[in-house]
Design brief:
The protein is an all-alpha fold and 425 residues long. The chain is 81% helix and 0% strand.
Length: 425
Amino acid sequence: MSAPAATLETGTAGPADAGERRTVAVVSLAHGCSHFFHLVVPPLFPWLKVEFGLSWAELGLLMTVFFAVSGVGQALAGFVVDRIGAVPVMLASLACFVVAALAIATAPGHAALVAGCALAGLGNSPFHPVDYSILNARVPAPRLARAYAVHAIAGNLGWALAPVFMVGITGAAGWRVAAAAAALLAAAVLATAWAHRERLAGVPVGRLGIVRAASASASGGGPRGADSTFAFLRLPAVWMSFAFFFTMAVAFGGLQTFGPEAARVLHGVDAQWVAACLTVYMLASAAGTVLGGWTAGDPAKAERVVATGFGAASLFSLAIALTDAPGWMVPILFGAMGFGAGTAGPARDLLVRRASPPGATGRVYGLVYSGLDAGMALAPAGFGRLMDHGMPSTVWLVIAGFQALLIGSALSVGRIGRARAAVAA
């Protein structure tokens, strides 16, 4: 290992300069926009139901389409990122959000809404391979966990902003204006990313952010042979990481969709507190992510941080399932779960980075994070069936079980990653 590489992997780096901070800020802004578009449509369900006479199943199909397209697209997007570079893919994705929001704003019926959600899912699909390719290339290893923390917090803020933004504008001017305003927001983020395209790429780029041929190898783009292109699929750590993210998404999907209602049934939670549970979870998760970003700087400890965070989250889930906690305690338990899961976030991303062979960052992150979309697409139906059968405690037992599975999964990914790093050294 060369001296500079050794410094990045095991040493300390000086303070981040303005260029590095700006890179992290722009990437995090784009990530926040992608999370914002996860929740552009769901807050509009009551208005869309009345406007078009839709059933709840037809409304639910909109998000199934979003995550299905995003999941398939994410697995494929990594190959595109590794071939042409992350920046043009980011710009195209943000443009998809603009067009998708305009399609929703002008939709004459359900089919057009489905098309708008499919386009939004396509825009969402590349963000993990795009973002992590840029961060891994532009931020020194000793500061990566902190960059990941900022990136994750921006995503949580995007989730938190979307319902307030969409419902607030809908109440004042109608849902079509709210969707058009979402298009303007995405356009502003697109303009920001375009203005910083050379800084994000780290090399001279063309007008659309496409890396010039002479700099392709420096940007992670450029053609590769078929064997090297798909060689990462033979790495056990990649598939273990995919399973880890699928498991995490099932737990979070159950918590996000039916967790508050199941807790209300079990503990008699007041209606206003039910609505606050997810908000408390997201805010606590953001706070935990800040802590996680400063405790996960050593990649060798990443799996232990992940195991501890999700182990704590699993225990708090069991408390909801098995104890007679009063209703006012439930939002506190949601907050404790969110803090534990948030603490694990930056270390989780370091585990994936360790599993990525050189030159395959986009492909690895694309495949691994498609597990999130797969889990989020499949979880609601299973947890909904439990609720239909009057089993709210089982909902929380399953959530706790999947969170507990993440402990062993993280330790396994970390062990395989360390073994691969030792062989490479």
